[in-house]
Design goal:
Elements (H helix, E strand, L loop, with lengths): L1 H29 L3 H31 L7 H7 L2 H47 L1 E3 L5 E3 L10
Antiparallel strand pairs: 1-2
């Protein structure tokens, strides 16, 4: 059970790292720091690889303990005493970290999406093209005294 607890602790730490990185990405997105967003995304890739490894280790350890395929609540029903209290705290911490990560990640994704739309709109404006909501191209109306072609 100690190895399983260590994996859960590692997952908690990893989600804290992911949340911190997403917060940086969110702030960079808010201030139009494109290179900082890109740097965060690169770091995020390595953290996601670590997450995959930890998830595989967790699943393997659960199988070894006879708890394969069980959700955390089901695991708590199968253990008792000090282990139950220990894992209750770990599972609660992990759930909180995952929820915080998801919230910050969703906010960062929204900000980045808004920025991409704004940049796309600016590019279209500079090229003299605008698109309707249907995706049909519209050219900007030009005043008859406008000599630019």
């Amino acid at each position: 059970m100690n190895e399983f607890a260590k994996i859960i602790e590692d997952l908690i730490v990893l989600f804290r790292e992911l949340t911190a990185l997403e917060s940086i990405k969110l702030n960079a997105g808010r201030t139009d720091q494109v290179s900082a967003v890109e740097e965060c995304m690169t770091k995020e890739q390595s953290l996601v690889m670590r997450l995959k490894g930890l998830e595989q280790a967790r699943e393997k350890k659960q199988e070894e303990l006879g708890l394969g395929g069980m959700r955390f609540q089901e695991i708590l029903e199968h253990i008792s005493g000090a282990d139950r209290e220990r894992f209750l705290g770990l599972f609660d911490s992990l759930s909180r970290e995952i929820q915080m990560f998801q919230e910050v990640s969703e906010d960062a994704a929204r900000i980045i999406e808004v920025n991409i739309r704004r940049l796309d709109r600016e590019i279209q404006r500079r090229e003299g093209r605008l698109y309707e909501n249907s995706g049909k191209e519209q050219t900007e109306e030009k005043h008859m005294t406008d000599r630019s072609v």
